[in-house]
Design a protein that fits this description.
Blueprint lengths: L15 H6 L10 E8 L5 E3 L7 E4 H14 L3 E7 L16 H12 L4 E6 L12 E3 L2 E3 H18 L3 E4 L6 H11 L8 E6 L6 H7 L19 H13 L3 E5 L5 H10 L4 E5 L1 H12 L5 H15 L3 E4 L2 H10 L1
Parallel strand pairs: 1-3, 1-4, 1-12, 4-5, 5-8, 9-10, 10-11, 11-12
Antiparallel strand pairs: 2-3, 6-7
Amino acid sequence: MTKAQFDRHRRLRNSSVMRRFVRETDLKVDDLVYPLFVVEGENIKNEVSSMPGVFQVSLDHLDDEIDELLSLGIPSILLFGVPTEKDEVGSGAYDRNGIVQLAIRQIKQKTDQLLVVADTCLCEYTSHGHCGVIENQDVDNDKSLPLHVKTAVMQAEAGADIIAPSNMMDGFVSNIRQGLDEAGFKHIPIMSYAVKYASAFYGPFRDAAESTPQFGDRKTYQMDPANRLEAMREAASDIEEGADFLIVKPALSYMDIIREVKNQHPVPVVAYNVSGEYAMVKAASLKGWIDEQAIVLEKLTAMKRAGADIIITYFAKDVAKWLQNK
Protein backbone atom coordinates (compact mmCIF):
# COMPACT_ATOMS: atom_id res chain seq x y z
CA MET A 1 0.00 0.00 0.00
CA THR A 2 1.41 3.39 -1.01
CA LYS A 3 1.84 5.79 1.85
CA ALA A 4 -0.36 8.88 1.65
CA GLN A 5 1.39 12.10 0.72
CA PHE A 6 0.64 15.26 2.67
CA ASP A 7 2.25 18.51 3.82
CA ARG A 8 3.91 18.73 7.25
CA HIS A 9 2.52 22.09 8.44
CA ARG A 10 3.16 21.21 12.06
CA ARG A 11 6.94 21.53 11.50
CA LEU A 12 6.53 25.30 11.86
CA ARG A 13 4.53 25.01 15.11
CA ASN A 14 6.71 22.63 17.10
CA SER A 15 8.03 25.12 19.70
CA SER A 16 7.19 28.56 21.06
CA VAL A 17 10.39 29.93 19.52
CA MET A 18 9.49 28.49 16.12
CA ARG A 19 5.95 29.88 16.35
CA ARG A 20 7.28 33.31 17.23
CA PHE A 21 9.83 33.07 14.40
CA VAL A 22 7.18 32.52 11.71
CA ARG A 23 4.42 34.71 13.19
CA GLU A 24 2.87 36.91 10.48
CA THR A 25 1.10 39.53 12.63
CA ASP A 26 2.30 41.28 15.77
CA LEU A 27 0.28 43.42 18.16
CA LYS A 28 2.28 46.33 19.60
CA VAL A 29 1.63 49.04 22.17
CA ASP A 30 2.35 51.56 19.41
CA ASP A 31 -0.78 50.31 17.62
CA LEU A 32 -3.12 51.47 20.41
CA VAL A 33 -5.34 54.49 20.98
CA TYR A 34 -7.05 54.86 24.38
CA PRO A 35 -10.48 56.57 24.49
CA LEU A 36 -10.72 59.04 27.37
CA PHE A 37 -13.83 60.79 28.73
CA VAL A 38 -13.33 64.20 30.37
CA VAL A 39 -16.16 65.77 32.35
CA GLU A 40 -16.85 69.24 33.67
CA GLY A 41 -16.66 69.66 37.45
CA GLU A 42 -14.13 68.95 40.16
CA ASN A 43 -12.83 65.83 41.87
CA ILE A 44 -14.82 63.50 39.60
CA LYS A 45 -13.66 60.01 38.78
CA ASN A 46 -16.76 57.98 37.93
CA GLU A 47 -16.47 54.41 36.80
CA VAL A 48 -18.87 53.74 33.90
CA SER A 49 -21.25 51.09 35.24
CA SER A 50 -21.44 49.16 31.96
CA MET A 51 -17.67 49.43 31.32
CA PRO A 52 -15.69 48.21 34.36
CA GLY A 53 -12.28 49.88 34.51
CA VAL A 54 -13.29 52.87 32.34
CA PHE A 55 -13.81 56.23 34.05
CA GLN A 56 -15.13 59.71 33.41
CA VAL A 57 -12.55 62.10 34.86
CA SER A 58 -12.56 65.83 35.61
CA LEU A 59 -9.59 68.00 34.70
CA ASP A 60 -8.07 67.77 38.20
CA HIS A 61 -7.71 64.00 37.67
CA LEU A 62 -6.55 64.27 34.06
CA ASP A 63 -2.82 64.53 34.81
CA ASP A 64 -2.92 61.22 36.69
CA GLU A 65 -4.54 59.55 33.68
CA ILE A 66 -1.93 61.00 31.35
CA ASP A 67 0.92 59.91 33.64
CA GLU A 68 -0.40 56.35 33.62
CA LEU A 69 -0.75 56.28 29.82
CA LEU A 70 2.78 57.67 29.36
CA SER A 71 4.21 55.12 31.82
CA LEU A 72 2.59 52.35 29.77
CA GLY A 73 3.97 53.71 26.50
CA ILE A 74 0.55 54.21 24.90
CA PRO A 75 1.15 56.76 22.13
CA SER A 76 -2.32 58.24 21.60
CA ILE A 77 -5.67 59.08 23.16
CA LEU A 78 -9.09 59.78 21.67
CA LEU A 79 -10.80 62.53 23.66
CA PHE A 80 -14.55 62.78 24.34
CA GLY A 81 -16.13 65.61 26.31
CA VAL A 82 -19.04 65.36 28.75
CA PRO A 83 -20.45 68.82 29.55
CA THR A 84 -22.80 69.67 32.41
CA GLU A 85 -24.93 71.95 30.22
CA LYS A 86 -26.40 70.95 26.85
CA ASP A 87 -28.49 72.80 24.28
CA GLU A 88 -30.24 72.26 20.96
CA VAL A 89 -27.19 73.09 18.85
CA GLY A 90 -24.40 71.60 20.97
CA SER A 91 -22.64 74.92 21.52
CA GLY A 92 -20.30 73.44 24.14
CA ALA A 93 -18.56 71.49 21.39
CA TYR A 94 -17.25 74.63 19.67
CA ASP A 95 -16.79 76.83 22.74
CA ARG A 96 -13.16 77.94 22.91
CA ASN A 97 -13.26 77.01 26.61
CA GLY A 98 -15.34 73.85 26.19
CA ILE A 99 -14.31 70.78 28.16
CA VAL A 100 -12.40 69.06 25.35
CA GLN A 101 -10.55 72.23 24.39
CA LEU A 102 -9.51 72.76 28.03
CA ALA A 103 -8.39 69.14 28.31
CA ILE A 104 -6.31 69.38 25.12
CA ARG A 105 -4.53 72.50 26.36
CA GLN A 106 -3.82 70.87 29.73
CA ILE A 107 -2.38 67.76 28.10
CA LYS A 108 -0.27 69.75 25.67
CA GLN A 109 1.17 71.86 28.49
CA LYS A 110 2.12 68.65 30.28
CA THR A 111 3.67 66.57 27.48
CA ASP A 112 4.53 66.39 23.81
CA GLN A 113 4.83 62.61 23.95
CA LEU A 114 1.15 61.84 23.45
CA LEU A 115 -0.86 62.27 20.25
CA VAL A 116 -4.22 63.83 21.06
CA VAL A 117 -7.04 62.78 18.72
CA ALA A 118 -10.16 64.91 19.16
CA ASP A 119 -13.51 63.25 18.49
CA THR A 120 -15.46 65.81 16.48
CA CYS A 121 -19.19 65.46 17.04
CA LEU A 122 -22.11 67.17 18.74
CA CYS A 123 -24.02 64.28 20.32
CA GLU A 124 -22.42 64.68 23.77
CA TYR A 125 -23.35 68.38 23.72
CA THR A 126 -26.89 68.43 22.32
CA SER A 127 -29.96 68.20 24.55
CA HIS A 128 -31.53 65.72 22.09
CA GLY A 129 -28.43 63.48 21.83
CA HIS A 130 -28.17 63.60 18.04
CA CYS A 131 -25.11 64.55 16.02
CA GLY A 132 -26.37 67.76 14.44
CA VAL A 133 -29.13 70.32 14.07
CA ILE A 134 -32.67 68.91 14.24
CA GLU A 135 -35.26 69.79 11.60
CA ASN A 136 -38.54 67.87 11.32
CA GLN A 137 -37.38 65.22 13.81
CA ASP A 138 -34.24 64.42 11.81
CA VAL A 139 -30.68 65.73 11.62
CA ASP A 140 -30.33 68.40 8.93
CA ASN A 141 -27.12 67.52 7.10
CA ASP A 142 -26.17 70.88 5.60
CA LYS A 143 -27.15 73.00 8.62
CA SER A 144 -25.04 70.74 10.83
CA LEU A 145 -21.84 70.91 8.78
CA PRO A 146 -20.80 74.48 9.79
CA LEU A 147 -21.05 73.49 13.48
CA HIS A 148 -18.79 70.50 12.94
CA VAL A 149 -16.31 72.73 11.13
CA LYS A 150 -16.33 75.20 14.05
CA THR A 151 -15.77 72.33 16.48
CA ALA A 152 -12.81 70.98 14.51
CA VAL A 153 -11.19 74.42 14.24
CA MET A 154 -11.58 75.03 18.00
CA GLN A 155 -10.03 71.63 18.74
CA ALA A 156 -7.11 72.31 16.40
CA GLU A 157 -6.63 75.76 17.91
CA ALA A 158 -6.45 74.16 21.38
CA GLY A 159 -3.66 71.87 20.16
CA ALA A 160 -5.27 68.66 18.91
CA ASP A 161 -2.87 66.61 16.76
CA ILE A 162 -5.59 64.82 14.79
CA ILE A 163 -9.24 65.66 14.10
CA ALA A 164 -11.58 62.66 14.13
CA PRO A 165 -15.06 63.59 12.83
CA SER A 166 -17.59 60.92 13.83
CA ASN A 167 -20.88 62.57 12.87
CA MET A 168 -21.49 60.75 9.54
CA MET A 169 -22.88 63.83 7.77
CA ASP A 170 -22.40 63.78 4.00
CA GLY A 171 -19.53 66.11 3.09
CA PHE A 172 -18.11 66.31 6.62
CA VAL A 173 -14.53 65.58 5.57
CA SER A 174 -14.41 68.13 2.73
CA ASN A 175 -16.03 70.86 4.85
CA ILE A 176 -13.75 70.23 7.84
CA ARG A 177 -10.68 70.03 5.59
CA GLN A 178 -11.57 73.38 4.04
CA GLY A 179 -12.28 74.91 7.45
CA LEU A 180 -9.00 73.70 8.93
CA ASP A 181 -7.02 74.89 5.92
CA GLU A 182 -8.60 78.34 5.97
CA ALA A 183 -7.90 78.65 9.71
CA GLY A 184 -4.21 77.86 9.20
CA PHE A 185 -4.29 74.18 10.14
CA LYS A 186 -3.29 72.56 6.85
CA HIS A 187 -0.86 70.37 8.78
CA ILE A 188 -3.57 68.74 10.95
CA PRO A 189 -4.67 65.33 9.60
CA ILE A 190 -8.25 64.03 9.56
CA MET A 191 -9.01 60.57 10.94
CA SER A 192 -12.45 60.03 9.46
CA TYR A 193 -15.08 57.73 10.92
CA ALA A 194 -15.58 56.76 7.30
CA VAL A 195 -17.38 53.47 7.88
CA LYS A 196 -19.59 53.78 10.94
CA TYR A 197 -22.47 51.37 11.27
CA ALA A 198 -25.70 51.99 13.20
CA SER A 199 -24.67 49.31 15.64
CA ALA A 200 -26.16 47.79 18.77
CA PHE A 201 -22.61 47.59 20.16
CA TYR A 202 -22.56 51.29 21.16
CA GLY A 203 -24.80 51.12 24.25
CA PRO A 204 -22.11 51.31 26.96
CA PHE A 205 -20.41 54.24 25.17
CA ARG A 206 -23.62 56.23 25.48
CA ASP A 207 -23.50 55.65 29.24
CA ALA A 208 -19.93 57.00 29.29
CA ALA A 209 -20.53 59.97 26.97
CA GLU A 210 -24.09 60.60 28.21
CA SER A 211 -25.19 60.86 24.59
CA THR A 212 -28.20 58.57 24.23
CA PRO A 213 -30.63 59.98 21.62
CA GLN A 214 -33.74 61.39 23.31
CA PHE A 215 -35.92 60.32 20.37
CA GLY A 216 -35.56 58.02 17.40
CA ASP A 217 -32.20 56.55 16.44
CA ARG A 218 -29.20 57.37 14.22
CA LYS A 219 -30.10 55.14 11.29
CA THR A 220 -30.63 58.03 8.86
CA TYR A 221 -26.96 58.98 9.10
CA GLN A 222 -25.11 55.89 10.30
CA MET A 223 -24.89 52.84 8.05
CA ASP A 224 -27.00 49.69 7.77
CA PRO A 225 -24.98 46.76 9.22
CA ALA A 226 -26.12 44.64 6.27
CA ASN A 227 -24.23 46.75 3.71
CA ARG A 228 -20.73 46.18 2.32
CA LEU A 229 -20.78 48.16 -0.94
CA GLU A 230 -22.07 51.22 0.89
CA ALA A 231 -18.99 51.03 3.13
CA MET A 232 -16.74 51.11 0.08
CA ARG A 233 -18.59 54.16 -1.26
CA GLU A 234 -18.29 55.98 2.08
CA ALA A 235 -14.56 55.23 2.32
CA ALA A 236 -13.94 56.33 -1.27
CA SER A 237 -15.81 59.62 -0.72
CA ASP A 238 -13.80 60.40 2.39
CA ILE A 239 -10.48 59.71 0.67
CA GLU A 240 -11.52 61.96 -2.22
CA GLU A 241 -12.52 64.70 0.26
CA GLY A 242 -9.18 64.62 2.09
CA ALA A 243 -9.22 61.99 4.85
CA ASP A 244 -5.78 60.87 6.03
CA PHE A 245 -6.99 57.86 8.07
CA LEU A 246 -10.09 55.67 7.66
CA ILE A 247 -11.91 54.26 10.71
CA VAL A 248 -14.10 51.16 10.59
CA LYS A 249 -16.52 51.05 13.55
CA PRO A 250 -17.32 48.61 15.14
CA ALA A 251 -14.45 46.20 14.51
CA LEU A 252 -15.12 42.67 15.70
CA SER A 253 -18.22 41.98 13.60
CA TYR A 254 -16.83 43.87 10.59
CA MET A 255 -13.49 42.19 9.89
CA ASP A 256 -14.48 41.69 6.25
CA ILE A 257 -14.99 45.44 5.90
CA ILE A 258 -11.64 46.22 7.51
CA ARG A 259 -9.90 43.94 5.00
CA GLU A 260 -11.72 45.37 2.00
CA VAL A 261 -11.07 48.99 3.03
CA LYS A 262 -7.39 48.11 3.51
CA ASN A 263 -7.19 46.47 0.10
CA GLN A 264 -8.74 49.46 -1.66
CA HIS A 265 -7.10 52.43 0.09
CA PRO A 266 -3.37 52.91 0.82
CA VAL A 267 -3.89 54.96 3.99
CA PRO A 268 -3.75 53.90 7.66
CA VAL A 269 -6.88 51.93 8.54
CA VAL A 270 -8.17 52.23 12.11
CA ALA A 271 -10.34 49.58 13.81
CA TYR A 272 -12.56 50.87 16.61
CA ASN A 273 -12.95 48.08 19.19
CA VAL A 274 -16.14 49.56 20.59
CA SER A 275 -17.75 49.70 24.03
CA GLY A 276 -20.14 46.78 23.54
CA GLU A 277 -17.26 44.55 22.49
CA TYR A 278 -15.38 45.64 25.61
CA ALA A 279 -18.36 45.19 27.94
CA MET A 280 -19.14 41.66 26.74
CA VAL A 281 -15.59 40.46 27.38
CA LYS A 282 -15.41 42.19 30.76
CA ALA A 283 -18.75 40.74 31.86
CA ALA A 284 -17.79 37.21 30.86
CA SER A 285 -14.39 37.61 32.52
CA LEU A 286 -15.96 38.79 35.80
CA LYS A 287 -18.14 35.67 35.71
CA GLY A 288 -15.03 33.54 35.29
CA TRP A 289 -16.26 32.16 31.97
CA ILE A 290 -13.31 33.20 29.79
CA ASP A 291 -9.58 33.96 29.94
CA GLU A 292 -9.79 37.74 29.42
CA GLN A 293 -6.15 38.28 28.49
CA ALA A 294 -6.11 35.47 25.93
CA ILE A 295 -9.42 36.56 24.40
CA VAL A 296 -8.45 40.24 24.11
CA LEU A 297 -5.00 39.59 22.65
CA GLU A 298 -6.48 37.15 20.14
CA LYS A 299 -9.21 39.48 18.95
CA LEU A 300 -6.97 42.55 18.65
CA THR A 301 -4.36 40.52 16.76
CA ALA A 302 -7.17 39.36 14.47
CA MET A 303 -8.11 43.00 13.79
CA LYS A 304 -4.53 43.67 12.72
CA ARG A 305 -4.51 40.52 10.57
CA ALA A 306 -7.71 41.76 8.94
CA GLY A 307 -5.89 44.95 7.91
CA ALA A 308 -6.04 47.42 10.79
CA ASP A 309 -2.90 49.51 11.26
CA ILE A 310 -4.22 51.19 14.42
CA ILE A 311 -6.74 50.01 17.05
CA ILE A 312 -8.86 52.25 19.26
CA THR A 313 -9.65 50.17 22.32
CA TYR A 314 -10.74 50.52 25.95
CA PHE A 315 -8.41 47.58 26.63
CA ALA A 316 -5.33 49.68 25.73
CA LYS A 317 -4.03 49.93 29.31
CA ASP A 318 -4.54 46.21 29.95
CA VAL A 319 -2.93 45.26 26.65
CA ALA A 320 0.08 47.48 27.31
CA LYS A 321 0.61 45.80 30.69
CA TRP A 322 0.21 42.31 29.24
CA LEU A 323 2.61 42.98 26.37
CA GLN A 324 5.22 44.42 28.76
CA ASN A 325 5.02 41.33 30.95
CA LYS A 326 4.95 38.67 28.26
